[in-house]
Each structure stands twice: as structure tokens, then as C-alpha cells.
Batch of 3 targets.
Target 1
Amino acid sequence: MLITVTRTGGLAGRERQAAVDTECRPDRADLELLAERALGEDWPADRQPVADGYRYVVQVDGKVMELHEPHLTANQRQLISAVLEEGA
């Protein structure tokens, strides 16, 4: 499973992108389950981003979701953090 996160916005307005391929990871099952949970949760489209908040585009094997701070579920936040911290 390929998971890509692109983060834009914030005070500096810089873009950051990272990707994780779960295929050879020892935590593969955990990360894939987290991605499935995050994708399965509702993210209301009518929730507008806040000024200087981050905007995330999360792609998981071709499925795309656009999320905004502070409107993230715990699973979405955990997935985003894992990919941005570990991805290259």
C-alpha cells in the first residue's frame, strides 16, 4: 500500500510531501489498518479551513481525501503524522 501526504498552508505556507510504501515494513498491518480507518471516516466537506491552518491531501492506493486543520479525526491525525515523520 502506498500512502502519500501533501501538507500545505500554515504560517509559512510551505509545502511538504512524504510517502510511505508499507510493503516491506514490519508495522505493515498496523499502518494499513490505520489508513483504512482514516479513509473510512467522514470528513465533512462543508468544514472550511481556518486561517493559517494546514491543508492535507492524503492518497492511499489511488483514493484521495482532502482534509483541513482542525477538522481531523484521531485516526486521520495519526496517519498524517506517521507518514510525514517517517516518509521520504
Note: Strands lie at 2-9, 16-21, 54-60, 63-68.
Target 2
Amino acid sequence: MSGAIYPDLEGKVVLVTGGGSGIGAEIVRHFARQKSRVVFVDIAREASEAVVAGCRDAGGDVTFKYCDLTDIPSLKRAIAEVRNQTGPVQILINNAAHDERHPTETVTEELWDDRIAVNLKHQFFAAQAVLPDMREARAGAIVNFGSVSWMVGQGGMAAYTAAKSAVLGLTRSLARDYGPYNVRVNAIAPGWIMTERQITKWMTPEGEVELMQRQCLKRKMVPADIAKFTVFLASDEASGCTNQHYVVDGGWV
């Protein structure tokens, strides 16, 4: 693992949602490399425990807490436990999401509510839970994860793209409200990142050809591309950055 080291991140309490796999796991590893005190929540126990073991073997301070993010009371309890055991959250990375495809004709009210819950709702309530401490400290950084899917007009997942486009509005509202307290809130929209899930479920030879035609950079984007930028955005090197939506997609959009 390579990349810049930001001394101000050492010892910072970082909470990552969905840190057990994919982009989230790579974000956890990169903050651990910064010597941050990292706590992540996830619903996948086995994968999450493997991430913890790997980070601790490398000397990282990483803790996993089981949590179903669609259960908001459980999310609030998990964040309260982090505060009591580790200290107030200073950096929140709202990464967790689920990009399952869903043809419009088959979407029920229950499915719609579930897609909003897993892709958007928890971001607001996680932020709500940590913002009072950030306001009191007059410092903090929140990074919310969106997606380029709505920007490229991707079909077959209307509830997902609706939720991810809403992340931008949430980000800008929170940035405006908490900017006077020196709390920065930004959003990242990843492109097509080659996580194990994406490679297994969605990447086809035809899809790869199309991606290489559309991207400016003629290489596959990987989770580290997103993790490195996330760490930068949380650091003091990005102290003037807030209320923004950063696309990290290799020039796809």
C-alpha cells in the first residue's frame, strides 16, 4: 500500500460505514495506515473480522461493530458505543450502499423504502449522531458517498439512482448548516470501481470494452483510487474543501 501520509490524521477517531468489503474495506485500511483510530460498522461478520485481522497484523488500530444500517436505533446505539469506548467521532465516512439492480416494473413500495434505507437514510442519521460533538469541538469532516450512476443516466436501478442523487442535496445542506462550526461535509461519486462484487456480478467483456471507450483513463479504477482521495478529503490538506461533490471515475462522466 502506498500514498501520502497526513500527520493530522494520526489518533483521529474515524467511523466508516460498510467497511467490511469493497471500497469501504480499502478506506478502513488506508485510515489505519494513517494511524487513525478506525471503527467500522457492517452487517457481514466474517468479511469484517478478516479486515480487522489484516489491519491489526499491519499495526492498525481497527475495530468492527456489527450493525444493520437500515435499523436506525441500532445505528445510533453503535455510534454511542464508539463515543463511549473510543471518544467522539471526528471523521465520518458514509460509504455503505447496495447497488442491486431492480427493473422499474417490479419495484414495490417495500422495495423502494428498502433501497432508500440502505443507500441514503442511514447517511443522514449517522451524521445527525456525530454532528453535535463536531460542533462542540468546532472541527470535523464528513464524506458522503454518492455515485456516477445517476450522472451517466444509468437505467435499471431507479430507486438506487434516486437515493444516490439525493446524497448531493444532503451534503450541501449539512455543509451549509455546520460550516460555521468548522465542520466540512463533502460527497464523493465513484465511477465503476473494480471491487470483487462488481467483477463477479456486473463486469462482462462487453462492459469492459464500453468502459474503456468512455473513460478518459484507459485503465480500470480500483478501490484504492477512492480510498486515497477519501483520506485526503478528511485530512487538513483539504481544510478549504466543503459543500462539494467530487467525481472520481477516471473521466467517465
Note: Residues 176 and 247 are 20 Å apart (CA to CA).
Target 3
Amino acid sequence: MPQQLNEMRGAFDPDQAMPDKLPAEAVQLYRDLFGQEMADWPKEIREPLIESHVSPEWIWDGYALVKYRNQFLDEMRQAGPLPDVPLIVLTATGIDAFKEAVLIGESEALLREEIEGKRRLYDALAASVPRGENRLVDGAGHASIHWRRVDAVLQAIRDLLGR
């Protein structure tokens, strides 16, 4: 990842940066984003999912995990080699509205460097196993790949199953 981005994210303290209560505008922004992504879903599925995603518990749980990012990355590095099984990594090459909503001083150029860093990382991950492949997926960001590019997700599943 770009050094500048690592430094910016490393300095982020969710305990200090987050207000006691998430502003109603932020909740509405996320509600609208999820609503757009799931607009074609049946209402009885869509509405409970949106409400869960914008609930204070869900949002705070997400921020609480930020504290453990480095610990998680260390565990991943120390986990040892992956087993010899087929692996397809899907790498989103876009910047979606979810990413734009949480940007804090990150330029588009820096985000493009991040995407390129992820591509290199996922290329290396895929290359670490005999049957690994990294597929670049246009038209979606990391948070929306499963909504916007269902075709790419389903194709990867089919390929893994040999169909």
C-alpha cells in the first residue's frame, strides 16, 4: 500500500475520531447507499438488511474492528501457506460510493495507488498456490462487488466448482 495511506490510516483512532452518536445525516447517507445498491431486491429482504446495516450496533462494531487491523494482518502473515485448493480472488478496480463516503483526505490518485497495491497483493496471494488466480473486476468497488458484479462472483463460483 502507499506509504502515505498507511500513515493516514495508522493514525486513525476510532475511539477518538467517532462521536458518541452518529449524525442522522451519516445514517441517512448509508441508508440511501444501501437502498440504491439493493433497489431491485424484494422489499421484505431489502428493508431489514438496510436497517441492520445502518443500526448503531452494526456501525460501531465495524469501527471497533479498526483497532485490531494490525493484529489481524499479523495473524494472516503468520498463518502459514494456504492449502493446495483452487483459489480465485476478485479484485475490484473501481471506487464506489461507500468508499467515497468514508474518505478522509484521500485523493483519487492515492486511492488508485491503493487499488494497484491491492492488485499486487492479491496477485501474490493467488500465486502462492498452484491453482490460484486473481481476476480484476471493473465496474465495482470493494464494498459493492457482490452487488454490482454478480456475474463475476457467480462465474468465479462456477469455475471453482468446475461448471
Note: The longest strand covers residues 87-92.
